[in-house]
Amino acid sequence: MGHLTLSEQLVYRDRELSYREKLVYLLSQELDFHCHDSNYASHDFHAFPAKFPPQLPRKFILELTNPADLVLDPMMGSGTAVLEAYINGRHGVGVDIDPLALKIAKAKVNAIALNPHPRS
Ligand SMILES: C[S@@+](CC[C@H](N)C(=O)[O-])C[C@H]1O[C@@H](n2cnc3c(N)ncnc32)[C@H](O)[C@@H]1O
User: Fold this and answer.
1) pLDDT per residue over 75-115, tens digit each?
2) Do 42 and 112 contact (CB within 8 A), yes or no?
3) In whole angstroms, what is the distance from residue 112 CA to residue 35 CA?
4) Which atom of ligand 1 lies nearest, measured to the CA of 80?
5) Does residue 51 sit in helix, strand or coil?
6) Which in 20, 45, 85, 113 has the greatest CB count within 10 A?
7) Other residues' Cβ atoms within 10 Å of the Cβ of residue 106
């Protein structure tokens, strides 16, 4: 069953997977996004140490939450997960002890909230 997609597993098992089963499945997947373009929306507004590739939180947000759910990142850094939550129709909430992180995250999310298509 390891090669089946999550959707196929849902059909295969004929029942909704538990949150834990989904998480285990996601963590078993390829999570290297180095070859992916991470410079969409406002993700490239500012550098930040150990920043997520946006595809990483996106994958978990889409598989583990529903539209309008709340996504919390308690150490949000530059707000990559919060921005992905917003872009994908969730409510993103972020916390960080670093004031610079808060400023960067606010700038990234506000840019998309004010102009959803900044490069079009
Ligand atoms: C690796 S960075 C997160 C980067 C983020 N995922 C991104 O994509 O930009 C870790 C963050 O955790 C924050 N942090 C560390 N300890 C914390 C604490 N006790 N409470 C809140 N934030 C904390 C740091 O300030 C830092 O911004």
Assistant:
1) 999 999 999 999 999 999 999 999 999 999 999 999 998 87
2) yes
3) 24
4) 8
5) coil
6) 85
7) 13
- If one residue of 46, 75, 93 were mutated to test the ligand 1 pocket, choosing by the most ligand atoms within 8 A of its CB, it would be 75
Distance 82 CA to ligand 1 centre (A): 13
Domains and CATH numbers, the chain: 1-30 (no CATH), 36-114 (3.40.50.150)
Asked if residue 46 lies in contact with residue 78, where contact means CB atoms within 8 angstroms, the answer is: yes
∠ CA 60-63-67, nearest 5°, is 105
Contact assessment for residue 54 and residue 43, using Cβ atoms and an 8 Å cutoff: yes
pTM: 0.88
